[in-house]
Amino acid sequence: MSVALPSIGASYGGDVATGQLVVLAYLALLTVGYVPFGRLADRWSPALVLRLGLLLFAGGAVLVAVGGAFPLVLIGRALQGLGAAAAVSGGQVVVFREAGPARAGRSLGLVHVAVAVGLLAGPITGGVVLERFGWPAAFLVEPPLALGAALLARGARQEARAHQPPSILALLRRPDLVAGLALAVLIFVAMSANMFLVPYLLQQPLALAPSSAGALLAIVPVAILIGAVPAGALADRYGSRWPSTAGLALVTVGILVLAVAARADAVMIAAAALVTYGAGAALFQSPNNRAVLAAAPSGAAGLASGLLGTSRQLGQIGGVLLSGSLIRGGGGLDAPAAYVFALTVLAAIAALTTILAAVRRR
């Protein structure tokens, strides 16, 4: 999706606000859907919620590809957001319950590996399809994959939940859970804004073709692919605090190095920055997710998963909005100095989050 943003923007106006709307339509419904689908996973069957989400995501992709009019593109992205909320809320509960406490970090790491595989294939495949067939064709790659995943999910154990799960307020009285949620909000402001700006940085000031930009963007999911399971294993053995803190520190360094790349007009420096950033993202996410789900009371893993997703998406929405303000305030999409300014601010937010992670209890 990210590598297609400049092309979608060019089709419907060409400015950064167009790209922001496409991203925000997805993120807004994703954010709204997490908690309801998480509660449904606790009260109903997580496996069924997972499959419902995959079907919604596939339908939204078709609408984006064939809708034509910009409002239909936004509606399709909104449907994809709802589908993703259901799939993540249900899927994360299935994995957490099947793994048990001793292997929860590693199992959640495997979830991130699966996500990373998709993120890895997406920019590369999307960049090639975009150059040859245009951006609508890139969305037509998604429905067969989502439908195939829905068929595979039929094998997941379906566990009906007849009880009344704890309320949101009950969960928010747990300090360890609230700490994990707060860290997710803050770091995803920085991470979302960073990854929103990077495709523009690569294709405009650094003048890379979409396929080359997609290949560089693939560095991040490769790093997550390599690091997610070891990060989860570290959290299973030593707790979540220090692995997640180290991950946040690497994210901070990666964003700062991207600012250096923007100033120096250096593609190789940008590549090194994305390696560091991706390694940090891998080291943070599995341990932090484990900490939040482990802090939830019995029968509330779905709701905790939904709150975690909501926190993450609130951060992402804030990051996308902030990125547009920062880039406009710095001089616009074609000005390297604007990226230096924006990325420096985002690194400061990531550094603050690192400090907060270091002082939490566990």
What oligomeric state do these chains adopt?
Answer: single chain
What is the number of domains?
1
- Largest sheet data: none
Rounded Rg: 19 Å
> What's the end-to-end separation, in Å?
35 Å
For the record, what CATH class applies?
A: Mainly Alpha
Beta-strand portion reads under 5%
Strand/helix succession: HHHHHHHHHHHHHHH
Number of helices: 15
The H-level CATH homologous superfamily, spelled out, is MFS general substrate transporter like domains
Q: Would you tell me which CATH topology applies?
A: Growth Hormone, Chain: A
Query: What overall geometry do the principal axes of the alpha carbons give?
Result: globular
Number of strands: 0
Uncertain spans, ≥5 residues at pLDDT below 50? none
Helical residue percent band: over 70%
Overall pLDDT score = 84
